[in-house]
Amino acid sequence: MPDRASPEYRQRVLRLEAVVLRHNDLGEADRMLILYTLESGKLTAIAKGVRKPRSRKAGHLEPFTRVNLLLARGHEIPIITQAETVEAYLPLREDLVLTTYAAYVVELVDRFSLEEGENRALYRLLTDTLARLCQPNDLDLVLRYYELRLLDLVGFRPQLFNCANCENEIQPQDQYFSAAQGGVLCPSCGSQMPNVRPISLLALKYLRHFQRSNFAEASRASLSASLHREIEAIMQYYLTFLLERNLNTPPFLRRLRNNPY
Hints:
Layout: H1 7-12, E1 13-26, E2 30-37, E3 41-47, E4 66-72, E5 79-87, H2 91-94, H3 96-112, H4 120-133, H5 139-153, E6 175-178, E7 183-185, H6 187-190, E8 197-199, H7 201-212, H8 215-218, H9 225-243, H10 249-258
Helix pairs in contact: 3-4, 3-5, 3-10, 4-5, 5-9, 7-9
């Protein structure tokens, strides 16, 4: 038996807390998992034999699950040797709408993250958001708050208080939003630039509120359905520009809203 106290053993073993973002089948019985971990940020690992009927790890390694993991290093990709659920977020598996909201949350983390080390604040945002989706919150508000906080943490905080072009303070009137400029534009600048979107004064007000508030403060806001859709469209425009590709989940979420099951 290996000496678990030895430095050699500790170098070969990783103990991590993680959220499973997604997985892909590998070979006849294995899976490759994309994880977001507290200690190491985004990480790829392999679960050997997890697709076998008697696998003890299978139920702990489903998407959206928060788990404690033991991984063996020394391979090109670490191997998961133990998995124990910390939080299953069961409501996210029992309702198709909640499943889709959760899928969007993990898709954003996956798309905006590289395997480049820890970001504990982003991990906490991820786990807090999954928990909020399980509670009686305004689900669209949860997503808008999450999007703005994620953008802060990955270095793409939108400018909402001064014109992103001329830097003059934004006045209380309808404005424009430019993904290329990274924020709101005053009417003078926005009317002369290509590929901008109009943004109402009320939508800008709530985006500012979400950006500078904690979730308890932000969740007291009450937005109409039309205002939710306006803000959602602005955020999707900005996120798609940053990622240089469309996200997979939003179109399905819109179809669910239009044709509830």
